[in-house]
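ok so heres the complex, two chains, lmk if somethin looks off
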Amino acid sequence: MVFSSKLIEDAVNEFAGLPGIGKKTALRMVLHLLKKDVADVDAFTGAIAKMRHEIKFCKSCHNVSDNELCEICANKGRNHAQVCVVENIRDVIAIESTQQYNGLYHLLGGILSPLDGIGPEQLNIATLHDRVAQQGVEELIMALSPTIEGDTTVYYIARQMKDLSVSITTIARGIAFGGELEYADEMTLARSIAKRLPIENYVSMKG
Amino acid sequence: MVFSSKLIEDAVNEFAGLPGIGKKTALRMVLHLLKKDVADVDAFTGAIAKMRHEIKFCKSCHNVSDNELCEICANKGRNHAQVCVVENIRDVIAIESTQQYNGLYHLLGGILSPLDGIGPEQLNIATLHDRVAQQGVEELIMALSPTIEGDTTVYYIARQMKDLSVSITTIARGIAFGGELEYADEMTLARSIAKRLPIENYVSMKG
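and the predicted structre for the whole thing:
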C-alpha cells in the first residue's frame, strides 16, 4: 500500500502490528479515528497508555490488577478457602463471566511444556504452595486445558501439595450442553460415560 | 464479559469501539499490548495521537496531508494537467498502489446522494471548479463508484465544468483481469462488449 502521508502510514503500521490485523483493516481503523473528535482519540490512546503504565499483577494470585491485591482477592465476600487454578487472565474472565464461581484464583502463567522450555520454575507453582500452606486454602479446583500438558501440570501440582491437607478437584469434562453426541471426540465421550452422574445431579446442574 | 481490572476494562472498551472489533478481539489486542514493553506501547499510542493531532487536509486536493499541500500535489514530477476525481482517501491509496498513475487527485469527500442528505454543497465540487479554472487542468478523470449515485455525480460535475475547456473521461469498466465471463453481471458484460477495444490496445494494456 502506498500512502501519501507519513502520519497515516505510521499509524497504520502500528495497528497492523496487532494480532490478526492486516494492512487493510488497520487502514479502516485509522480512517475511523481520523473522523473522530480529537478528544475521543485522546480517550482511546489515553486508556491504552494508562493501562500499560499502571497495570500491576496481584501479589497473591498473579492476576492483572489495579492495586497490589486484585479486586477478587481483596473481596471479603468471596470464599477464600477455594482457589481455582488456571493458566491465564483469559480463563479468569471466562469463569467470572459465568457468575457462578465465588472462590479465588491462582494464575500459573502457562502450563508445563518441556518442548517449549516451560518447566515448574517458569510457572507460579511455588507461590501456590505458599498460599495453600499459609492461607487456609481447603480446595484447589484445577481448571487447565484438557491436553496432555494440562493433565501433566495437574498431576505435578497434586504431587507438590501432598504434604498439605488440601483437596484437589478438576472441573468436569464431558459433552457440552447442546453438543451432539456424534460430533464429540472419542476420549471426551468415553470419559463422559465413565464419569456418568446420577440423574438427580444432572437436574441440579441444569439449575 | 466480567473484568477484575478497571484499567483492562477501559482499554478493551476503547478497542471494541473500533469498526468490526468485538469484545473478544479487543481483549486479545489488550493482552497482546500488555505483554509488550512499555516503550512499544508508547510508540503505538504515540503514532495514533500524533496522526490525529497533526494531520492536515491538502488545501488543493483535500487529501490527508502532513503539510499544507500534500506530497502528491507538491510533487513537481507529476502531471499537474491531469486530475483524477475520487470519493475518498481509500481510493487514492488504491490508485497510488498500482504505481501506474502520475497525475494529481481531487477528493470529493463522498458522492451525491439526496436520500442521505448529500448535495453538491456537501462535496468539494466548487473547489474543483476553481482548480480547473485557475491551474491549467486539461483532463478530469472520473473514478467514482459504478452506481447510480456515482454516475449522477459524474454528470453533475461534467455540467458544472461546461464553461471550461477541460476534457472529462471516466475510468474503463469491464471484466476484471482473471475474471470469469460467466460470473460477470449483465450490465458489466454488456458494457464491456459495447466498449470493446482493438486487439493492439489489449496487448499494450497487459504489458
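quick notes: Chain A touches chain B through 58 residues (CB under 8 Å). thats all i got rn
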